[in-house]
Inverse folding.
């Protein structure tokens, strides 16, 4: 799975992907320059901007620019693979402060808590894909999800084909582009994954687990019982609990919450009031939605909606 090619910039992730370049990036800066020497306190000028590109099943693409107040600690149920294109991105991950510079990748595993602030007064910007772990499972033929212990990948180790896909988030993703992006991301995850000691592994019951997953996703506002999961999968509840996280990077409960939040975001983007959004997405009330939203995206629903381009 190792990528030794350094000439993959023309990879096509969509109907024309690879043509665009991010302006304002630091990829042409001198190789010896080290922006870490400019690290200062977090900037004080507020200004967050979020812009979503066309996505595909299991893939979400986002461009974010932040100055001043950043993202509060939060976690996703997806892989997050981002390319910094200006400024210094600073975040805490697994108990350590990290800095991601222009042209570098950051890779976050599902369900790992992190935050995100600007390392300098100029703020920072990045483009990112959120990738469903189930797609990674399919790309790897059902192997355990790879875990990248060091979340920052230096410029010299970045797969240029994946970088080209991350630079261009505006072209639609067709079916082949979706597969290409997934394979490139999976290759990067495997290449940089922590070395694990070999041991006895139990094969995952992926088809059965997928039925549980589909039942939850069909209507996340509905809270299903363990007996329903057992009936639809043919597995006992302990196997479901153990293998669901191994297969998809999170628990069934967390997976349901994330699908509720997906629905909430769609409603908020359509201008639905927050109280009504909470009800339609299956949350107890508006306060419950707000708490879960901030825990997941690092912003309140109001701040998230205001930052949308």
């Amino acid at each position: 799975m190792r990528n030794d090619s350094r000439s993959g910039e023309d990879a096509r992730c969509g109907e024309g992907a690879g043509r665009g370049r991010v302006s304002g990036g630091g990829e042409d800066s001198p190789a010896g320059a080290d922006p870490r020497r400019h690290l200062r306190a977090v900037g004080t000028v507020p200004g967050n901007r979020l812009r979503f590109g066309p996505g595909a099943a299991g893939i979400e693409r986002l461009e974010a620019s932040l100055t001043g107040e950043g993202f509060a600690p939060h976690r996703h149920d997806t892989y997050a693979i981002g390319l910094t294109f200006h400024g210094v991105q600073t975040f805490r991950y697994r108990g350590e402060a990290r800095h991601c510079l222009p042209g570098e990748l950051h890779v976050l595993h599902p369900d790992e808590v992190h935050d995100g602030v600007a390392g300098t007064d100029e703020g920072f910007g990045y483009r990112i894909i959120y990738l469903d772990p189930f797609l990674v499972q399919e790309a790897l033929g059902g192997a355990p999800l790879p875990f990248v212990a060091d979340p920052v990948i230096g410029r010299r180790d970045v797969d240029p084909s994946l970088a080209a896909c991350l630079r261009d988030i505006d072209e639609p993703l067709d079916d082949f582009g979706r597969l290409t992006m997934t394979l490139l991301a999976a290759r990067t995850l495997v290449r940089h994954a922590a070395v694990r000691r070999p041991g006895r592994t139990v094969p995952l019951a992926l088809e059965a687990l997928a039925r549980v997953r589909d039942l939850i996703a069909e209507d996340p506002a509905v809270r299903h019982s363990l007996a329903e999961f057992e009936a639809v999968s043919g597995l006992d509840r302990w196997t479901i609990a153990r293998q669901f996280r191994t297969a998809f990077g999170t628990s069934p409960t967390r997976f349901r919450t994330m699908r509720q939040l997906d629905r909430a975001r769609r409603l908020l983007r359509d201008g639905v009031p927050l109280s009504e959004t909470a009800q339609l997405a299956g949350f107890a009330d508006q306060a419950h939605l707000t708490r879960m939203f901030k825990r997941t995206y690092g912003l309140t629903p109001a701040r998230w909606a205001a930052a949308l381009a």
